[in-house]
Amino acid sequence: MDALLAVAEEQFLAHGFAGTSVAEIARAAGIEPGSVYWYFRTKDHAFAAVLNRLLDGEVARIGDLAGEPASCLFAALDSVERRRTLHPCVAERAPHAPPVMAYHERLHEWLHGLALAAVTDLVPEPDRELAAEAVVATIEGGLANPAPTRPTSALVRYLLAALAV
Questions:
Q1: Is the separation of the CB atoms in 114 and 149 below 8 Å?
Q2: Contact 153/138 with Cβ under 8 angstroms?
Q3: What is the C-alpha separation between 158 and 35, in angstroms, rounded?
């Protein structure tokens, strides 16, 4: 299963969701296309499994970091931003594919926790939740943009600085 996920990850990162087929994943893994369906019911299930595998690694890595909450948020953002080509696919697929929506909700919850920790010392208690939601909305909007003019991290840095005033 891990080897198949690694191949699927390579395919999705190289070709995106639309440019990757189950047959191509199978071919790259050296198995018959029907064999992929033993592990994943649909291409959306394979895509969500890859995304969750990547997120598992990042959650563990960021959890091991010691430091300022904002530093942890930016470390997570840098990691997520390296896979930015997949995020517009997530935004497109999530409303139609429950496994992709479940991944999106998991990512959103994780980012929200990191954002909430980052704004705790910047914003008074009644507004912390709203500030964290604004940070996450900025992240999600920035990552969904296929042709950004600025890195998403620059937008989040600006927002955090504005909240600190």
A1: no
A2: no
A3: 48
Domain spans, the chain: 43-164
Whole-number pLDDT of residue 93: 95
pLDDT the model gives residue 52: 97
pLDDT mean values, one per 10 residues, the chain (165 residues):
94 94 96 93 97 95 90 92 87 96 97 97 95 96 86 94 91
Residue written as tokens 């959890």? 63
DSSP line for 46-57: HHHHHHHHHHHH
Phi, psi of 95 (to 5 degrees): -65, -20
- What is the H or E stretch that residue 16 is in? none
Residue 38, Cβ density class (10 Å: 0-12 exposed, 13-18 middle, ≥19 buried): exposed
CATH of domain 43-164: 1.10.357.10
Please say whether the beta carbons of 5 and 50 come within 8 A: yes
Torsion from C-alpha of 44, 37, 19, 107, nearest 10 degrees: 30
- pTM over 0.85, yes/no: yes
